[in-house]
Design goal:
This protein is α+β, with helices and mostly antiparallel strands. It has helices spanning 13-18, 39-52, 122-140, 231-239, 245-260, 278-281, 300-303, 307-321, 324-341, 347-357, 361-364, 420-432, 452-455; strands spanning 26-33, 58-64, 70-76, 83-85, 102-107, 110-116, 218-230, 270-276, 291-297, 367-374, 384-391, 397-404, 407-416, 437-443. It has a seven-stranded mixed β-sheet, sandwiched between helices. Strands 4-5-6-1-11 form a five-stranded mixed β-sheet, covered by helices on one side. Helix 5 crosses helix 12 (420-432). The radius of gyration is 21 Å and the shape is globular. It starts with 12 loop residues before the first helix and ends with a helix.
Length: 458
């Protein structure tokens, strides 16, 4: 069966072209277990999990077309996925990771997956984690655990566009399954649909740039602050307030920034909210990176409105921008942009051009928020207490959200020398009566990557 190996990579090009040793574009998802991790059993579970995902058993390769233009492909990689002991991640696309684009590690009561964003996004990583946790928990706790479909808890709010596969709880994938081509066929290899009618969107205003206009000193180093909110309390609030968890957090972050920039003459807060493009593209099983972003702006007119009205307007922005035709049009615009970069014949030349082009990114968005959705880890979720996500970000302020075991885990990543923005954000929670606690804070820990463009020219 052909898992796209040896074919020109398309959906992956954005991160492949942009990423470098200083911009790893890697993600770490950490499961905090209720007990200490058994490393031997985890390695067995990783191997069982690897067998379920042949389209992720790859390494990067390079080819040239008839005109000599270089392009990336995936090649078969039969080496095992690496599972290391300790919190420090291994370098991806390097001998330390057996040249894979993902790896695992464990320490104390934690299990982490590190992956390069070109391989997949949060939705794909959730699928891997569900399989891994099932395989591990069967060995560690209960061999009779079910991986069949389960029902979501009564009253749990679901929002289609912000959750994996529409948040319909699919069976947990295990080795021996029939693997549908829909998991590995690239939506970008299909033809663009005809007759799209995207809604017109308002012009983007100039936004606050926290890398140059912050009210605190900006550091190179990034810190992660993990904030916990009880799911029951969060859902009680959003279900009565015409909003959703990700939209609410985006608004609270925007309000916090607006509070610290009261005159707003230098721009308005603009939060980039990640969404899952799969439902709109009609490819719910796709394993590639299918994430995009909406732009939510707290403009000057909104500042004087009450919170309820701001929540309604933010939800309206989400609905407008996430209209299927808008999402599809944005997807193909991104592909067209990558086609333009490929007029440069070499991978390195393309990289240098894209880095220069995207150096303006921090000035086009104030902060970003990403929420893949409720983890839905199945019967094995009972063995997990918390789940955290960290990721490379070009922004001075970013949030990754997870929800597991009855708890929302809000991982705030900041480049600031003090807690000016963190405290303003937490104060927004206090104002609406949502209780929280800071679980941990530490230097952001994500995997480095090798300079993979150099590897093909040695």
């Amino acid at each position: 069966m052909n898992y796209n190996k040896g074919k020109k990579l398309l959906s992956e090009r954005f991160y492949l072209t942009w990423a470098g040793e200083q911009m790893s574009w890697t993600v770490r998802m950490t499961l905090k277990m209720r007990d200490a991790v058994d490393g031997d059993l985890l390695r067995l579970a990783v191997e069982s999990t690897r067998q379920r995902y042949p389209y992720y058993q790859v390494k990067l390769g390079m080819r040239k077309d008839a005109e000599g233009t270089e392009y990336f492909v995936y090649e078969d990689n039969s080496e095992p996925w690496v599972t290391s002991k300790g919190e420090t991640p291994v370098r991806l696309i390097a001998p330390e990771s057996n040249n894979h684009l993902l790896a695992f590690c464990y320490w104390d009561d934690c299990i982490a997956i590190d992956f390069f964003h070109c391989l997949t996004d949060g939705t794909g990583a959730y699928n891997i984690l569900r399989t891994l946790l099932y395989n591990y928990s069967c060995r560690r706790y209960d061999a009779t655990l079910s991986h069949e479909r389960i029902s979501l808890p009564k009253g749990v709010h679901i929002e289609r566009i912000l959750t994996p596969e529409g948040m319909s709880m699919a069976n947990i994938r295990v080795a021996g399954d029939t693997i549908s081509p829909e998991e590995w066929e690239d939506p970008a290899a299909q033809a663009k649909p005809d007759h799209l009618h995207p809604f017109p969107l308002p012009e983007r205003p100039h936004c606050v740039n926290l890398t140059t206009q912050a009210k605190a000193m900006v550091n190179e180093a990034v810190e992660t602050v993990n904030i916990l909110v009880e799911e029951q309390e969060m859902m009680k609030y959003v279900s009565s307030s015409d909003t959703s968890p990700a939209t609410l957090v985006s608004l609270l972050l925007s309000r916090a920034i607006a509070h610290l920039h009261p005159d707003l003459t230098e721009g308005v807060p603009m939060v980039s909210l990640a969404i899952n493009q799969r439902p709109a593209l009609g490819c719910p099983q796709a394993g590639q990176t299918m994430a995009s972003a909406l732009r939510l702006t707290l403009n000057n007119e909104m500042r004087g409105m009450n919170l309820e009205m701001q929540q309604t307007i933010f939800r309206g922005m989400v609905v407008l921008q996430s209209n299927d035709d808008n999402v599809i049009e944005n997807f193909w615009q991104s592909q067209n942009t990558q086609d333009l970069f490929e007029k440069i014949p070499t991978l390195e030349g393309r990289h240098q051009a894209m880095v220069k082009s995207f150096s303006v990114v921090p000035s086009a968005t104030t902060a970003c928020v990403s929420y893949v959705g409720k983890a839905n880890l199945g019967a094995a979720e009972q063995y997990v207490s918390e789940m955290y996500t960290e990721a490379y970000t070009p922004f001075a302020l970013a949030i990754e959200m997870s929800a597991v075991g009855g708890t929302f885990c809000i991982s705030l990543m900041q480049r600031f020398a003090d807690d000016t923005y963190l405290e303003a954000f937490l104060d927004e929670f206090r104002q609406i009566g949502l209780q929280y606690r800071i679980a941990t804070r530490h230097p952001t820990t994500i995997a480095p990557i090798a300079n993979y463009r150099e590897l093909f020219h040695k």
